[in-house]
Design brief:
Elements: E1 5-8, H1 11-35, H2 43-57, E2 60-63, E3 67-72, E4 75-81, E5 85-90, E6 102-107, E7 112-116, H3 122-130
Length: 136
Amino acid sequence: MTRPDTYRAAASAFLLFGVVCGLISLLLIAAALSARMPWAPVLLPLGAYLFVCVWLSRFKLIFSPDHFTYSRLFSGDRIVAYEAIASVRPAAWTGPFESPLTVAVRTTSGEEVRINAKVFPREAITRLLALGNHAV
């Protein structure tokens, strides 16, 4: 039996949020030192980064021999059999809480699985989009 290929959020996603939260932390530390403001606000970017790390760590895309599985923090696993895929393409529209780089996988039953492509490595998204070439 072939071992499934598993992709998780790319290191660059963690790095990007780390840089943003780090810069905000540095600004708040500078403000705390120079203006004698309380140190509690310095902890906010750290808390935000910890939340982002948990959020990103829950993204998973698994390619098995006959299906793929998509997981994220606030939803269960979505399993789609390759034979049930009608189309795979970049989403024509995105909602206010979706990444602008969303991939829409439509099944033959009309169900749509929307995948946040921005957090995954390019190889995973290329492989996901390639499933559309073999759609029924």
